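My current task is to audit a protein record that another person submitted. Alongside the sequence sits a line of tokens, each denoting a local backbone shape. Please read both lines and tell me whether the tokens look consistent with the sequence. Do not assume that whoever made the record got everything right. Thanks in advance; the entry in question is below.
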Amino acid sequence: MAEGERPREIRLLALENMPDSTRSLLGMVEVYGNKSGLAPSAVRALERIYRRRVPSDRIMTPELVRSLCEASRETRRQVGALVHRSGEVDCVIVGDSSSLMLPDIGRLRAAEGRFRALRLVHTHLYGEPLTRDDLVDLTRLRLDLVAAIILTPEGDPRSITWAYNVPAQSAEERPYQVAGPFPYGHPEPHFGQLIASLEAEFAQKRRARAVAKDGRAILVHVGEKRVRGASLRAESRLGELASLARTAGVEVVDQVIQLRDRPDPRSVVGHGKLDEILMRAIDLDAETLIFDCELTPSQASSISTKTDLKVIDRTQLILDIFAQRAESRDGKLQVELAQLKYALPRLQQKDDSLSRLTGGIGGRGPGETKLEIGRRRARERVNRLEKELGELAARRKERKRKRLESELPVVALVGYTNAGKSTLLNALTDAGVLAEDKLFATLDPRARRLSLPDGRVVVLTDTVGFIRNMPADLFAAFRSTFEEAADADLIVEVIDASDPEHEQHLETTQRLLEELELGNRPRVAVYNKLDRLSAEERLAFDRPGQIGLSATDLSTLGPLLRAIASAARVRAPVASDSASV
């Protein structure tokens, strides 16, 4: 105990005996919520609620009920008290006639498997049971319990009802349980024992769950219901987002689809849907919400104010994957540049009111805020990265010039991410590069020599995979890497034939090639992963001008080799450091 600080019991006794007017003047009590238009007598009635104490075995006491009812009669509004497990009243809140707005009570959870150690006891004026807002507050804020005192028209207690969180066993079950309404005076359960048993159940359930490397996440997709096939498209897009999440090391515990006329400008999903998602996140112990779109700074801020969950969008998820998988210095710098460019506008949104001068003449005083220092250093780092990448691009250009001087034809493998480009490179050249059934397994271009059956040699290049709605900053940062295909004599577009959206993937690839000014290069379409299709489904890819194969089956690679040989420039046989196919 600090010197001069009175013991807790003495301080509480002093507050009990202190006049309400003195307590208010000293700022020792504060009433939260809708205080406009309240008479002084109503304010005093609200402040007197702070005097009440509730023992650990009770949900509420007659004295607390009497004080809440008196304050509701004075104000004609709902009145509530957040009661701590210690028995003290932490907050007194006044709302309107049908609802309460709880103050900020800190982080979403006090600890894993634990509740908030606060319960809400409040009045209902019109005989209504617990409302949706009450239940959302219970689950979202992880309160111990929410209790409602249902009043008569005269403002006296008629009945009581309460609800508490329970571990749901399935997505269909509610994550809470409601008791009552019971006539006022009905016996209550032992509050302390009830909460202790519930926390033990939640802790046991959490221990039984496998914990992913980077936590548990709920995926959210919002689609336009006016678009034909909106439901199927939403499921496909959410499937791709789930693949991205798994690639990033996140365990997907739930997926949410909402079809709307247009996304909500503030919260993307509707407010009611967001409340449902937050309730599911708490029940499933999810730490992250991942939205299948690019959130604006204001949307991310609006959603974050309603929850303590980590809120990220599709762009951040892709940037995180690139950051994990970049191996070369070039790739690492490109990822860092893209991340900084993404973060800068969001840093700017933090608090423009913190603007300060940087010191010097006319700028004496507090100097820069931490936020401004962060923004300035980020901009300086962006400039430095762009300079370093320019130098690396010059070296890469020199290497390409030497490669061209060798007169070896160049064939570039391009296509949607996870279409099988790296697997095809390994099959053709025995390159041994990483090939995984994950998105963006390849970030750094790989070039290998390929000996054709007739003895000629070409350079086969594996490139970074494309993806729909490629983040603009990421595309700009990796543009030089994508341009590995710029000097190709032949572009081999690899398409995953087993993906139901392979046509959209092909459109994405062609659009990005146009942006790279590679639309006029000779191209051949290769439909990969035919081994995953039935014999009848494979017939759809048996057309002139396209090649069907399985990169894991060497016997299917002959047509591709002949296409490469016919498109490649003729050159005398030279020694090769790769296996001949």
Observations:
- The chain has a mean pLDDT of 79.
- The chain has 18 helices and 17 strands.
- The chain has three domains: 8-208, 216-321, 406-567.
